[in-house]
Design brief:
It contains 2 helices and 6 strands. The strands form 2 sheets. Strands 2-3-1-6 form a 4-stranded antiparallel β-sheet, with helices on one face. Strands 4-5 form a two-stranded antiparallel ribbon. The chain is elongated. The mean pLDDT is about 85.
């Protein structure tokens, strides 16, 4: 009987650097959008609007929750006023957005 062939271990692929999305030092503000699934909003729509209109990084937008009639998202507290100004009245899925800070 022949001896089994030796198995070479494949070289490991590079991995992405670990970036923590949860920076506990930076406070976040919760924003509410008057519109949800009934208006056709999706998580990707809200994140896309916040990143393109307000110039935020996608990693900065977190805790996006789309309910039937309302949606919520969290942005860095220092950027919340800029996000509110940029998205207030912006068109998303054919509707004007109405936002307010709730936390």
């Amino acid at each position: 009987m022949a001896a089994p062939a030796t198995v070479r271990e494949r070289p490991r692929r590079h991995s992405k650097p670990h970036v923590s999305r949860r920076d506990h030092d930076e406070p976040y503000a919760k924003l509410m959008i008057a519109g949800g699934r009934a208006a056709g909003l999706r998580v990707a729509d809200i994140v896309g609007a916040a990143t393109s209109a307000a110039g935020l990084d996608g990693e900065a937008v977190r805790d996006v929750l789309v309910l039937e009639r309302y949606s919520f998202l969290s942005v860095p507290a220092g950027e919340s006023a800029r996000v509110l100004d940029a998205l207030q009245g912006a068109k998303l899925r054919g509707r004007s957005l109405r936002l307010r800070r709730v936390g």
